[in-house]
Each structure stands twice: as C-alpha cells, then as structure tokens.
Design goal:
The complex is a heterodimer of chains A (about 450) and B (about 160). Chain A is α/β, with parallel strands linked by helices. Chain A has 19 helices and 11 strands. In chain B, strands 2-1-3-4 form a 4-stranded mixed β-sheet, with helices on one face. The radius of gyration of chain B is 17 Å and the shape is elongated. Classes of the chains: A alpha/beta (about 450), B alpha+beta (about 160).
C-alpha cells in the first residue's frame, strides 16, 4: 500500500524484508525466518535477556526504555500466568513505521513476541493493532494462522515440547490506548483509561498478571539481535543507543518516507540528504524530532545526533521516530493549535489537568490564531502547559504540554505578531475561517 | 438479531483467546458496526447479553472509541486526516474541498445515505501525506484532483 523508499545510508535490519513478500510464510522462511526463535528455544531466559541487554536495544515506541531491563523486571518466581503484549496502536502524529512492519514482515513480529515469551517464561502473547489498520489485522490473522499450521505456535512449538500461543487483537480508535496501561484496559474490553503506577505492568499487567509490553518495532528487532548477534546490532548505533531504527520523515521534505538509519545519524543530514531537502529551496523553521509530543527544535538546533541521549541533550526526545520538518512559511501558532486540537480530542478525560488543560489551551490557541489574542494569553499558554507537566496519571498531559511550551518559548515573537486584533500574518483569511464562533 | 456467519465464527474463536469474556468487546463492537452500519440499540443489547455485561457498560465503552458510533452514517465514510504531517502538506485545503464537494460538515451524511465525511486525527500515513481513509481503505499523497477521482470511483460503486 504505502510506498517504500530507500537511501544508500540506510542499514536495513528491521526493514530488510520490506517489499519482498515476507508476509507469506514460505517466503519468510526462505529469508531466514523463524531461525531466531529456534535459536532462542534452547537458551535460558537469562541468556536471552543478556543478549538483548548487550544489543543496547531501547524501546521504539517513544520512551526509549532499555528493552532487556524491562524484560528482567518480570518476577521469575511468580506463579501467575505471564503475558507478552505487542503494542501496535501506532497513533503518535508523525509516526507511520509499525504499519510498514506489520504489512511487510508480520512474522518477524510474531517471532519477536515468541522470543520475549521465552525470555520471561510466558506462554501467550497478544498483538494489538489499532482499529484503523484493518488491512494489517487481516494480514496478521493470516500470519498467525500459518504459523500455527506449521507447528511454530501452539502446544509444541518447533517440536520442543514448549507451549506458546499468539493472538491478535483490534482497537477502535484512540490515541490514549497507545499508553501501556490504557492498552491493557482496552484489551480487557474497557475504556482505555490509564492505570495508576506503580505497580508497573511487569508485575501487575494484563488481568493482574506480569506482562511485558513492547512496541512493534522493538519486538521486530529481537529476532535480528538473537540471530545476527547482539554486538553486531549494538555496533550499528552509538554507546547505550544500540542499533538502527525506522525514522518516519514527513512534512516539508522533498522525499518523505520511512528510512532505517543507525542511531546517532545526523538530523541535519537526515533532512537535507536522506529527505532531499526542503521543497522550493525554502529554509527550515522548526523540526519535530520524534512525534508530535516531543519539543520542537529550531533551525539552529538540528545539528545533532539522532539517538536517545543526543536528542535529550538538545532538550527534546527521540520519541517514536517521527521527524516532521516545518519550513519558514509555516505559522507556528497554527502549528501549536493543530497539535493541541489533537491532544484535546484524544485526552481521555480521566485526569483534570489534562482534560481541562488541553481544552483551555485549544480554545486559547484557536482564538489567538484568529487575532483574538491578548498579551497575557502568551504567558498564560505557557503557564497552563507547565502546570500539566507531571500532574497526570499517564504521559498524555506531558505530551500535550511539551511541544506547546517549546513553541511558545522558542517562537514567542510569532505569538506577539498575532496580537492586537491582527489575524495570522501567514494566512489572514484562513485563520479567521478556523475560528468557529466568529466565522460561522 | 443475527450477524453474518463470518462474524459468528470470529466471535466464537475470539472467545477462546482470553481468560475473560469481556476482552472480545472492543473488536466485536467494531465488526458488528461494520455489518449493521452503526451500533444500533438492538446490536448493543445483543452484544451485552452475549458477554453478560449491562448495556450501560457497553455504551460506556462505545463512547470512548472514536471509530465507534451509535448514529447511522453513510455507506462510505470519508475520513480526512488533518493532523500536523497532513496539514503541512495541504490537508486543510483538502478538507475544505471535501466539505464543499459534498455540501456537508464534519460527521454529516448525504441525504441518500451514501457518503459521510469526517475530519480525523492521525491515521498513520504521515510520510504519504495528505491522506484519507474511505472506510478502511487508505488513499495517500492526495491532491484535490486525485481526491475527486477517488471519490468518483466510490460514487460509481454507490
């Protein structure tokens, strides 16, 4: 469906089977499929976890937590059933990579779930796919069925006497469900409202049992680590930031697409060389480095290494790998408005700072952009956003606040240009259209 | 109330996947909606009974998920993404064009019941923006002309 792209700087690990028909099980097997799971079968759980730790693999969903460590948190002596949960509720704006993995290489996700299962002595895993990705759910259902038919899943996997089941599950539209505990609520058939932590999912997760929850890309990396060696994977990246990852380039670039690049790759190079630069030769105004929830970087801040630590040093986050490029002709107030429209829509309403904060911020930004702003609104936007930070059950409050704070502080002048009844200098007609109360 | 044999087969199989019956609720609601067109009172009653839940429980879940609806909508639901990556590549003009073309606003349906339009949040097509989904089908790298051609295709089918 979605077009594939490539660039000579890419190191294709997770994406190496893209476009090769690997959704078909025979094709997958011909391309070294299910060899990693068979290699992991005789390994001890500790040995698997140590391999993943050595690889330096960190969560590809957004938070970047070390995967091996996450797996090691599952209590070994727990008499309860344990679960692996694959988070395919990809909905962070700017992110469209899990979709490609699920479409082109669904068996690698199943294999990753199996390896995680072997690492923590779990006997079942669930692959949660967002409701909008119906075609991927169909692809996954077939992949699971084929794996059962070959005896790779079920009561006696690869004739080892071990049992492992994998099931698919579908969502029905909710960004919030991408949060780990909300995803568990959703899988249990409830509203996707986050749970209070601790206890963390590794101890109390699905149906009260220890659960490992990882992003699709994280789990799809595991087979490559086991099969090709942890050190090889680690060496692709930078220290403590092992491997490669799928970067989703979007916005104002000539060649948008999903590229698999080593961690630590230069952001500037990613935009100008891999992404082919900015259409019309325009200048960059800002870049969202890791999905809409990460603080934006200005044009002066993009000479950085794209790994978890490099982006953190620049005051932002590597997040989910969604790199959104914004050119000089874009109004940052409007950009902030669209980000807030999203979070206001997606806030589950459970915590007051998030529910009220996103709503007030959206209303303020709508009014502001259309020229109805007053000077104290600027500080107020920052104040409201700052007061959401860290005061909610889940990170959605932070996700809405962080980009807003970065925009209002780094682009304050643009907010000032909207003051005194002046509608957006970039789009005076359109901005009024966006204000429902005044225009309709 | 009866569903299709495929629905029943999937429902029965899914019940074996989880330690709790309730876990099948969200995907089941979406599949039921696909068959009926929306979550009718009858469908809600049926699903609640099957899963030994109260109707209130079921409605409580429905109201949370943006894809689930208790109101009938068009046979083809045109969902235009207006999130950041799409907006930067002209999604607001596209959404305006869509509204004008149908003479509808957000979540309204044509009188013949064939088309509904909806402004939706990120659908995971950021690198192929601007994008839309018509029911479950993705259409990407859109322009107004491409949008018209695609919609004309659906009109012929309608």
């Amino acid at each position: 469906m979605a077009d594939l792209v490539s660039h000579p700087d890419e190191i294709k690990v997770v994406s190496k089977r893209f476009g090769q028909g690997a959704a078909d099980i025979d094709r997958y097997l011909a391309l070294d499929g299910y060899k990693a799971a068979q290699k992991a079968l005789p390994m001890t759980p500790d040995a698997i976890i140590n391999e993943v730790k050595t690889s330096g693999l960190r969560g590809r969903g957004g938070a970047g937590f070390p995967t091996g460590m996450k797996w090691s948190f599952v209590p070994k002596d727990s008499p309860k059933q344990k679960y692996i949960l694959c988070n395919g509720d990809e909905s962070e704006p700017g992110t469209c990579k899990d979709r490609l993995i699920l479409e082109h290489d669904p068996h690698s996700v199943i294999e990753g779930v199996m390896i995680a299962g072997l690492a923590v002595n779990a006997e079942s895993g669930y692959i949660y796919i967002r409701g909008e990705y119906r075609y991927l759910s169909i692809i996954m259902q077939k992949a699971i069925k084929d794996a059962y038919a070959r005896g790779f899943l079920g009561k006696n996997i690869f004739g080892s006497g071990k049992k492992f089941d994998v099931y698919w599950h579908g969502g029905a539209g909710a960004y919030e469900v991408g949060e780990e505990s909300a995803l568990m609520e959703s899988l249990e058939g409830k509203r996707g409202i986050p749970r209070i932590k601790p206890p963390f999912p590794a101890v109390v997760g699905l149906w009260g049992s220890p659960t490992v929850i990882n992003n699709v890309e994280t789990l799809a990396s595991a087979p490559h680590i086991i099969l090709d060696g942890a050190q090889k994977f680690a060496d692709y990246g930078t220290p403590k930031n092992g491997g490669v990852r799928l970067f989703c380039l979007s916005g104002h670039v000539n060649k948008p697409g999903v590229y698999e690049l080593p961690l630590g790759y230069s952001l500037k190079k990613m935009i100008y060389e891999v992404g082919g630069g900015i259409p019309g030769g325009k200048k960059i105004k800002a870049v969202v480095p890791g999905g809409s929830s990460t603080p934006v970087l200005t044009a002066d801040e993009i000479d950085i290494a794209m790994d978890f630590d490099g982006v953190a040093k620049a005051g932002s986050m590597l997040g989910s790998g969604g790199v959104v490029v914004i050119d000089e002709s874009t109004c940052m107030v409007r950009f902030a408005q669209y980000i807030m429209k999203f979070y206001q829509h997606e806030s589950c309403g459970w915590c007051i700072p998030c529910r009220e904060g996103t709503d007030w911020l959206k209303k303020t930004l709508d009014r502001f952009h259309a020229g109805g702003g007053v000077k104290k609104d600027i500080n107020n936007i920052q104040y409201l956003a700052e007061n959401m930070m860290g005061r909610t059950f889940c990170p959605l409050g932070d996700a809405a606040a962080m980009p807003t704070i970065s925009i209002v502080t780094k682009f304050r002048k643009e907010f000032e240009d909207h003051l005194e009844g002046r509608p957006c200098p970039y789009d005076p007609v359109g901005s009024v259209r966006l204000l429902p109360v005044l225009s309709h | 109330m009866t569903f299709s044999p495929e629905f029943e087969q999937r429902f029965t199989e899914m019940l074996t996947h989880y330690p709790s019956k309730r876990s099948v609720l969200v995907p089941t609601l979406l599949y039921a909606q696909d068959e009926v067109g929306y979550l009718s009172d009858e469908a809600i009653t049926e699903i609640a009974q099957r899963l030994q839940l109260t109707e209130l429980d079921v409605r409580n879940v429905i109201s949370y998920y943006s894809m689930l609806t208790t109101k009938p909508r068009g046979k083809y639901n045109v969902q235009v993404c207006t999130n950041i990556a799409c907006i930067l590549r002209g999604a607001d003009d596209l959404w305006e064009h869509c509204q004008k073309k149908f003479g509808l606003r957000h979540k309204q349906t044509t009188p013949d019941g064939q088309f509904s339009i909806e402004e939706v949040e990120c659908i995971g097509a950021c690198s192929w923006a601007p994008a839309m989904q018509v029911n479950y089908d993705f259409h990407e790298n859109l322009t107004k002309d491409k949008f018209d051609t695609i919609l004309d295709g659906y009109k012929k089918k309608a």
